[in-house]
Amino acid sequence: MGPGRLHFKTAVGTLGYMAPELARTGKANTSTDIYGLGIFMLEVACGRKPIEPQTPPEEAFLADWITGCWDKGDILTTTDKRLEKSFVGQQAELVLKLGLLCSHPVAAARPSMSS
After folding, report:
1. Is 108 in contact with 20 (CB distance < 8 Å)?
2. β-bridge mates for residue 51, sequence order
3. CA–CA distance, 62 with 102 (Å, rounded to integer)
4. Does some domain include residue 1?
5. Is 32 inside any structural domain?
6. How many C-beta neighbours within 10 Å does residue 87 have?
7. What CATH number corresponds to the domain at position 76?
8. Is residue 77 assigned to a domain?
9. Is residue 48 helix, strand or coil?
10. pTM score, two decimals?
11. Each residue of 56-75: pLDDT tens digit?
């Protein structure tokens, strides 16, 4: 490796925003960036951090909690209560579902940057 070139072998990122494959391999790519974007979207829509260990176990991981609520038909109950319904339900639902799609645990299931 020539002078002025850097090489890192350790994955750097914030727990909760780091894609599972990035944590395993240490290799970042656009798919791992999309994962972090998805988690950020969920955080903004819900007003919660990606991991909250002080909450009940079924609510500790933001994406898992939202997925569970979606499965029960209650995805809008996850929106930030401070918004006091000052949003269009369909738009909030779209943001939540897009956030979940982007933060899918399987990299191949995430959308590409171009889509």
Report:
1. no
2. 61
3. 13
4. no
5. yes
6. 15
7. 1.10.510.10
8. yes
9. coil
10. 0.85
11. 999 999 999 999 999 999 99
